[in-house]
Amino acid sequence: MIVLTYASDLLIAILFFLSFYMKVTNLHQLPLEINSYQVIPYYYAKIAAYLLLITEGGIFLLYITGLAFVMKELLLIVLLLVFIALILRKRKQQGNLECGCFGKADSLNKYPLQRNMILLVIVIAKLFLPIRMFSLEESITFIFFITGMVMIYDILTDVVRLREINKGV
Amino acid sequence: MTTVIILSTGVSLWCVLLYIRWQIIRKYAYREQRELERFKRELSTTMTTIIRVDYTEHRFKEINAILTKKQLERIIILLVAPDWLVAVKQRAWPRHLVVNARLYPTLLPYFQRVDVLVGTEKKVIRFSDAYEYLRTLNEESEEICS
């Protein structure tokens, strides 16, 4: 059972870091993305963008270090519910099914609603799983592991893109 | 002790990865900049924003409505459409420079994930959604007018 706790913690951490990283590397895009939901007035989109980044980075760190037990799960549940509500609203208004939440990771962008629902179920299930112990070394290793993986993924997609352009010329 | 070892390995890994990424981005950006410069010279224009519009996109109607407005900043539109539609749109959007995308095949690979390229002096800023970009631009210009 403890394996499941580890797996769910890591899954959440990876997803949130991936989304954080993709947004940070394309920072100009983010206010537009937020504007597309048409909930926040145009001027506040930039502030909202930074708040979103802080939240996502914070959730990554919380799940890696295991701080704020139960509080962080509740925070994530509320956040996911807000996301789901926003996606539903956007779908009703514009009939748009995709979101740019993960930047280049297209497969994660395709079904935002289902993805968030699954994540929500995992977070709720996690509340009933056994508690795991956290140690500093472990947390640091995981941080480097996850950030390294995401960066390698980013580099690989860039290499593919560069190669396509070379083919065209 | 182990913490120190883990920390140093991790940080060195970061440095290597960041360096590789930086190199790739530089290479890509250089090509992109060169290609855009060439394109702009061919058209002999100084407009900085190039936007790709596909006529099969489901929000083409909305994009069309924004582009027909008068107060919008002048932009280059790379229109992916049949030749007759390009000809029609060249007359419908007189403020903008409408270009047939079929004539510039070397430029299209740079628009794979992005719809908008804004070439500033130092770097090229990319946006992935033409409609959202135009909507924001439109809102900005309306603010200035009012």
Structure notes:
The complex is a heterodimer of chains A (169) and B (146). Chain A has 169 residues and is mainly alpha-helical. Chain A contains 7 helices and no strands. In chain A, helix 2 packs across helix 3 (45-65). Chain B has 146 residues and is α/β, with parallel strands linked by helices. Chain B is built from 4 helices and 5 strands. A 5-stranded mixed sheet of chain B has the order 3-2-1-4-5, sandwiched between helices. In chain B, helix 2 (60-67) runs parallel beside helix 4. The model of chain B has no long low-confidence stretch (mean pLDDT 86). Classes of the chains: A mainly alpha (169), B alpha/beta (146).
Features of the shown structure:
heterodimer; A: 169 residues; mainly alpha; 7 helices; B: 146 residues
Question: What is the secondary structure topology, with strand pairs?
Answer:
The complex is a heterodimer of chains A (169) and B (146).
Chain A (H helix, E strand, L loop, with lengths): L1 H24 L3 H7 L9 H21 L5 H24 L11 H4 L2 H15 L9 H33 L1
Chain B lengths: L1 H42 L5 E6 L5 H8 L8 E5 L2 H10 L4 E4 L15 E4 L4 E4 L2 H16 L1
Parallel strand pairs in B: 1-2, 2-3
Antiparallel strand pairs in B: 1-4, 4-5
Helix pairs in contact in B: 2-4
Q: Profile the largest sheet of chain A.
A: none
- The counted number of beta strands of chain B is 5
Report how far apart the termini of chain B are.
Answer: 64 Å
Radius of gyration of chain B: 20 Å
Parts with pLDDT < 50 across at least 5 consecutive residues of chain A: none
Question: Span between N and C termini of chain A?
Answer: 54 Å
Number of strands of chain A: 0
Please write the string of helix (H) and strand (E) elements of chain A.
HHHHHHH
Most extensive interface between two protein chains, with residue counts:
A-B, 32 and 35 residues
The overall pLDDT of chain A, averaged over residues, is: 87
**Main sheet strand line-up of chain B:** 3-2-1-4-5
What is the beta-strand fraction of chain A? Answer: under 5%
Using the alpha-carbon principal axes, give the shape of chain B.
elongated
Estimate the helix proportion of chain B, in percent.
Answer: 40-55%
